[in-house]
Known about the structure:
- By secondary structure, chain A is of the alpha/beta class.
- Chain A has helices at about 15-25, 65-80, 160-170, 185-195, 210-215, 215-220, 225-240, 295-300, 340-355, 370-375, 390-395, 405-425, 450-460, 465-475, 485-495, 505, 520-530; strands at about 5-10, 30-35, 80-85, 90-95, 100-105, 130-135, 140-145, 155-160, 175-180, 200-205, 245, 245-255, 260-265, 270-280, 285-290, 290, 305, 310-315, 325-330, 445, 450, 520.
- The two termini of chain A are about 30 Å apart.
- Chain B contains ten helices and 19 strands.
- The interface between A and B is large, with 47 and 58 residues.
- One flavin-adenine dinucleotide (FAD) binds near residues 42 and 163 of chain A.
Amino acid sequence: MPHTHDVTVVGAGPAGVAAAVEAAEAGLDVALIDAAAQPGGQYWRHFDEDRARPEDRRGHHGWPVFTGLRDRLYVLRDAGRVHYLPGHQVWLATRDDAGTFTLRVTPTVRDPEPAGPGHGGTGHDGQDPVVARALILCPGGYDRQLPFPGWDLPGAMAAGGVQALLKGHRALAGRRAVVGGTGPFLLPVASGLAHAGAQVAAVVEANATLGWLRDPVGAVSAPGKGVEAAQYAATLARHRIPYRTRTVIRAILGDGRVEAVRTVKVDREGRPAGPEREIAADLVALGWGFTPSLELPLMLGAATRQDVDGSLVVEVDDLQRSSVDGVYVAGEATGVGGAALSVSEGRLSALALAAALGRPRMDPGTNADADRNTEAAGNTDADGTTDGNTSADKSAASGAAADPAGIRRVQARIRRGRRFAAAMHRTYPVPAAWPRSLPDATVVCRCEEVTYGDLRHAHAELGATDARTLKMLARPGMGWCQGRICGYATAGIAAWLDGRRPTADDLLPLSGRTPAVPVRLGELAALAETVTADPAGP
Amino acid sequence: MSTALQGAGPGPTLSRSADLVIVGAGVVGAAAAYFAALAGRRVVVVDRGAIAGGTSSAGEGNLLVSDKEAGPELDLALYSQAVWREDLAEHAGLWEFEAKGGLVVAATEHSVAGLRELSVHQRASGVEVHDVGHSALHEYEPHLSKDLAGAAFYPQDAQVQPMLVVAHLLRLARGLGATVRTGTEVTGFLRSGDRVTGVRSTAGDIPAGAVLNAAGTWAGEVAALAHVAVPVRPRRGFVLVTEPMPPRTVRHKVYAAEYVGDVASSDAALQTSPVVEGTDSGTILIGASRERVGFDRTVSVPAISTLAAKAVALFPMLREVRLMRTYHGFRPYCPDHLPVIGADPRAPGLWHACGHEGAGIGLSAGTGKLIAQALTGGQPDLDLTPFAPDRFTDRTQDAEEAVS
Ligand SMILES: Cc1cc2nc3c(=O)[nH]c(=O)nc-3n(C[C@H](O)[C@H](O)[C@H](O)COP(=O)(O)OP(=O)(O)OC[C@H]3O[C@@H](n4cnc5c(N)ncnc54)[C@H](O)[C@@H]3O)c2cc1C
Ligand SMILES: Cc1cc2nc3c(=O)[nH]c(=O)nc-3n(C[C@H](O)[C@H](O)[C@H](O)COP(=O)(O)OP(=O)(O)OC[C@H]3O[C@@H](n4cnc5c(N)ncnc54)[C@H](O)[C@@H]3O)c2cc1C
């Protein structure tokens, strides 16, 4: 019988690290599993810790918050209070008859980077299951992608991928870049590229303006965000990067790789409303908001809903509890809202779980400081003006007590964060009419080479009026990525062809995947010996 | 959107009456719609979800004769084979019909003997079987385990892509004047005395000369709306899908001899004898487990891990191949493992075509043609008595409850 932890946290991004640290400090026996080699997730992705340089923190807001959380994590790990398992992916999550949860893990296929300090030392062979009485799932999300001519050319990348190369590898994917799509997350990518020495030929934003700067709800809810945006604006100005609003990339041009983009002005619905122009580029970074990773919550049967940005997210209550008893969810998976909100949600889930289990805190700490500090996660300056903010570091190392007032304070912060996120999503919607002028030859599903024309045929001739039927009849999402990349687009196209807006029912069939990541059949077969007496065996 | 294919919407009550309303746009409903429309009937197909949204898109597309013991189901399977290959021959390419043949392998001399004995009876019923000895096994399947004793090859075994079958049969039926209403749930029946004279639905009443219950695993619930009992229940199955492999890595449908016993079993516990096969897209399908656990949708580690273990035992090279996805469905299951096909004497005007369990894709073509023949007053090509809707006595149901 494997050891049973009080809680397993999946994901060591802002939400997961905060949850693990908070839970362990509340006295819970914690396991923390993360696919990456180092903590930080999407947002605080960084270069190998062993070979860190001061400038690595560039582009990382709330870096002190992160290092504070990370230091606490390592202290807890070294004290044996967090069983931290980096470099491992959870591929199967099941609820056991006894009410516990068993997670099966497999080593992440690693990039050629040498192992960092988070590596090894765990003695885990990747086969032992991780068992716990409760789960806090913080699997985060990744860039939403929309298909259009040329989006599959080498040199066209997801904005998050470009960012990951910069942050994790200090690698620049091109010399002359165009950043396109919608939303404030295009800005850090553009400024990151500029800082790294690329020429950013344009940021192409489908929506009107930096409206959220002026949005009264947004400004009140998260004052720091305005500062952050202003700093990005300053970076764009300093590097003379044109910021073209109400403009979309209509096509990426090139013979075998990206050579230029063709842009066009659009109206509110995304319909062309001006002349086209061509911009030379060898790198295009594309982002249309985020898609939460829902594999694990869906595998366990958690209820979902459609968020303001149109994405499917896990439904949670005001204590981060999903519809499945014992399963808490925090971070992007409950709705996209940035790193600071993710940290708060992670903390709340741990505090709520500790309270539910009746655990007292082991490290009494001051909570007011910690509350203020974590709020800064998304707010501090890209260029590191919070350097030396040691008070923030210190307070981040203490956390908030699991007292009702502490929980209420975190809840209030989450409500503010959500309001801000909703305002942001309303400012930066994916244009409703985005499939309008797609040529039939546009590849929608790259794995199975399914074109927009194939989807139109399946709709018009075969009666596929929803995303699941479209997938069944034309195969988008049936290949290697299982719809991770084309799922959102397929749902949007299904709805568009049927003359309506995409619904949760369109998104759901392309969001669930078992296993959560591909796994060798040998690894699955090995479980047979442990779980069944093989009733029908020869 | 084709004019004859309509979504739910708050539309007006359907005024136009039909000769036949078919409840269920799965493979069985689609086949019945096609053959009834071909016979000149005005058909309306109604489904509460999308087309092929039920079990027809949650299984595999094997058209097997090899796994059936001599008897009425084998007769129906052989009849269906003829319908697939003759009546539907011109459309075969639309649904990727492929006569790849089935290879049933046995691990021990004892199971080889069992295979040979089964084949004697199957041959007598018209099944083509080639005995394959140990030494010839690898000519059929180069990657098979070396530890197998022998096999039987069934050239008639074939496959289709079931969702495309449903979509195209419905498209062809629409071309013949049929109407398909998705997003429309049947909530009751119109009656005139005992007679069923149409359905009540979430989109209004649809009067009809006859109603066909083709609601698959949910056919028992639909029958209950007409106050008749049809004992169809769910039998869960998982299927594993691997990453794409080079073409012809696995050439036929390959499964272990023990599978036949599993199919015919009434045991509620888990049974897993995988059928391993390659697909056009390169992925290898490994399916499927059988267990009676109601409509439990959570992943079963015993089911999927045992499937994997047994598939690896057949093809050791699969050990290093990655599992990309698993899915599951609920086979429509009757206590005696036979489908329900024909008119219901307890409710005149009501017909059934349901309960095809793990063979509904293969049996759909024959079922559809037979139902159309019976509905139009003709003598069906095959005697439908073994499939009679009122054949179930309380005793067969009690015996069934006892094992479950
Ligand atoms: C290009 C870009 C720019 C951004 N800019 C900003 C910004 O300026 N300001 C801001 O506030 N936010 C920004 N964000 C958003 C920010 O990254 C997210 O809000 C934040 O990372 C969410 O935290 P999280 O903990 O929910 O998830 P993540 O940070 O995504 O972490 C999830 C972790 O879970 C792991 N994981 C997932 N599934 C499994 C599994 N099955 N097994 C094991 N591990 C698993 C992942 O590997 C990952 O490490 C940006 C994001 C991107 C991509
Ligand atoms: C894992 C697995 C593997 C399988 N492999 C094979 C195989 O290889 N070969 C083979 O031949 N068979 C196979 N099968 C079996 C086959 O899939 C089924 O027998 C077949 O799909 C049944 O078709 P159907 O049309 O009767 O039911 P369904 O496809 O389920 O259609 C019934 C329809 O009725 C609708 N419905 C229900 N209630 C109502 C209502 N009140 N109002 C309106 N509509 C309603 C449903 O929405 C549904 O669409 C497999 C099954 C499983 C689960």
